[in-house]
Amino acid sequence: MRVFLTGATGFIGSRVVPELLAAGHQVLGLTRSDAGARSLAAAGAEAHRGTLEDLDSLRAGAEQADAVIHTAFDHDFANFVANCEKDRQVITALGSVLQGSNRPFLVTSGVAIGDPGDGGPAREDVYDDHHPIPRIASEQAGNALLESGVDVRIVRLPQVHDPVKQGLISPYIDDARAKGSVGYVGDGSNRWSAAHVLDVAKLYALVLDRGLKGARYHAVAEEGVALRDIAETVAAGVGLPLVSLSEAEAPAFFGWMAGFAGLDMRASSAWTRAQLGWTPTGPGLIADLKAMDYTAAAAAAAQGQSPTLDC
Known about the structure:
By secondary structure, the chain is an alpha/beta fold. The protein is about 40% helix and about 20% strand. The protein contains 13 helices and 14 strands. It has a seven-stranded parallel beta sheet, sandwiched between helices. Strand 1, helix 1 and strand 2 (about 25-30) form a beta-alpha-beta unit. The two termini are about 20 Å apart. Mean pLDDT is about 95; it is low at about 305-310.
């Protein structure tokens, strides 16, 4: 198939490209820059110039494809609600081109949307249209398209990591440097699920080739890593003290991240593994945090080299 991939030069998308090519697909990758076009060409993909803000450019890319995989997302979490609404518009625009066809459309969301509300891990079969996390907008848009006949498949992400970048933990580290301490809420026993970026990329390719219309898949290798363990590893890496915060103190310390810092985001991928034969093999989250070059990361952040438009 010829696949239109948004976020094709981003953290996840750039790893999805070789997985798709290895499976025999052609890749048309969205990029906004000459540098991005060159990197796609070097990887064996074709570039399509456009942006998430230019919906016509997105529709033009989708029109040329047999399938669409949407991994791009603006990770400026200080404007998270607005960016989730932007993602709704992007998904709606891409899906409008696929109406009346059987072309698959893979939409990206977050595992927390599958929270069953009973204290158990998030599951693929759980969907709450009124979930308070703003990223529900992505799945609401996908559901609307599904109801209109589009072959929508959802890939839900945990904290996706390697030794350079780790989802929400990357801004968590930057914030710790700014505050002079590494914080966690209460005893830090709340947990975040995680997966290595290369395992996540493999799952996207599997969902494209073997996924079911209307199904949700969890890219989860580790069901839950305690925030206390994450905080201790980060504190050792950046050389800052640990601090336990009460729920009342968390908003002032964490700012926009307070809504996530005390949240338990455990998630299961049992159904996903059984359906697709997906077997994660990459390093765990703590191993990647221990392998991280914190000095280099600090220098990159100081020079403004931590792009937010990525996924």
